[in-house]
Amino acid sequence: MKPELSPLKKFKEILAFMNLPVFTYIDSDDFAIIRLQDLGLEMPYLTPTFRPDYYTFTTVRQGIANFVIGDEVFKLQPNNIHVTKPDIYFSSGWIESPVGYHICFNRNFFAKYLSAALDDFPITEDRNGLLYCFNQTDLNRYEEICESIYNEAVSNSKYKYEMISNLITNLLLLLQEDRSKVVMENQDEKHTFIIKTFHRNIDENFNLLLTGETSSVFRTKEHAEMLNLNETYLSKLISKTTGKTINQWINTKLIEEITYLLKNTDKPMSEIALMLGFNDMKYFYSFFKRHAKNSAASVRNNFNESDSDRTHVYRGDVVNIRPTW
Length: 325
Prior knowledge:
Blueprint: H1 11-17, E1 31-35, E2 45-46, E3 55-69, E4 72-76, E5 80-84, E6 90-105, H2 107-113, E7 129-133, H3 136-153, H4 160-178, H5 189-210, H6 220-227, H7 231-242, H8 246-264, H9 269-275, H10 281-292, H11 296-305, H12 309-315
Antiparallel strand pairs: 1-6, 2-6, 3-4, 3-5, 3-6, 5-7
């Protein structure tokens, strides 16, 4: 059995959907923090699949879990930190009871309370999620900040969100300091803004496709219009600074979304094709095979028949499906 795919995007709604505590101090859809041990998860525990509209920052002092982010599996262990970006399919299976913090925040929170822009922090680069491994001493530095954030969140302070915003800034600066890889190091500020906005516009286009609010995949023309740029200029800028063309970025995203839905849902291929802007099934099949180097049917069948770690999670060999939500 595969996890249920839910359309919910807000953290409080997601907690309620899983019959988990919706703590009274969580009074915003833009920010939340919980202590994982306070959820009272019965081990093993598998969540449904969501596509949240917020960033997540999870510290693990104790516990073992598999996080499935898009088409990637991350194995969380003690002294790990995991971060994800919004608008990506997310499910998690806890094998050993967790102790740590889970923080959610979106762009609205940054815009309202933080002087720095969210794009100033390369939280996940161009990845859907990243896993950081620390020793106990290094993790302590993060958990001290998380504890301060939690204490502010549960307080009645009039200015708690201003305090929390400063603490989150410290948290992200610390993570940025600990990173060993520099992203887009040779780009000037203007180019960096254009590229990050371009990637954000791709994500938003796919959100609209999956909710049925649009039936078209945006290509160079639409992206240039959204950025108020000449098509040729945008094409050259993206190619030169990222090493991939606009269409390569879009096609990669398409293949990621199709692959996820093939593996992790039982949706008919005709429904998947229509959701992602394909009106011609022959073209859908040929497009997927050309870019994925495998047929859509083979990807689904091989995944369902495989004994990978991911399917163990889904079939309940490691993490049992809860009978009700």
